[in-house]
Amino acid sequence: MKCCIIGLGVFGKNLAIDLAELGADVLAIDRREDNIAYIKDHVGAALVMDFADTSPLSRLPIADMDAVVIAIGDDFEASLAIAMKVQELGAKRLVCRVLSPMHERLLRLLKVDRLVVPEEVAARGLAQSLLMRGVVEGFDLGDGHAIIETRVPAKLIGRNLKDTAALFKDADVRLVTIKRLDRRLLGKLLNTDNAKPVRRTLGVVPLEEPFDAEDIFVLFGPDKGLRAFLDDLAD
Prior knowledge:
By secondary structure, this protein is α/β, with parallel strands linked by helices. The protein contains eight helices and eleven strands. The protein has helices spanning 10-21, 33-39, 76-88, 101-109, 118-131, 161-171, 183-190, 223-233; strands at 2-6, 25-30, 45-48, 67-70, 94-97, 114-116, 135-142, 145-151, 174-181, 199-201, 216-222. A hairpin with a 2-residue loop joins β7 and β8.
């Protein structure tokens, strides 16, 4: 997958690095040389461009990119001008960071594929983790639904999906997968200063796989269902 990230503030920089680590071929663009110097060893290519002049984009393989992300966080006019330019150049999929309500309305008029407000996404995730018992991470999907990571509810420890299926069904909650401590490395970790526990993802959870006290559930469902499910099964 080929991606172009334009704007390397905190959001754009981390997005570019995450995509590269996941195997994407990333072209990163920013107007500041220090941002390019920081990221150049993490991505496939990085270049400096003055956002006030969109003409250099014509010399780049924008039409070959699977996605172009405009992550500019401080320049309303540059964001719009670049959005129009990459559309003109045949961008297959365009994602834009939203800077204000007016900016959002104009981007919608341009029929941008996806609009992102990083601060709102982070806030919703934190809200999930604060409001739901045992939640360590959350991602709001909109329309009252979320994916959350949570410690296994106390009343499910030692049980399995086969004999608890009714509990999940009644709450309209789905167990997506389980993140489990890799006990092969646990001994080594106990002898290592400041080491973080290593977890492996089980994939599709076997029906008769016992739930371990150290498991992290990845759950999907409506906000109210998830909250009730966790409250009912806690100690």
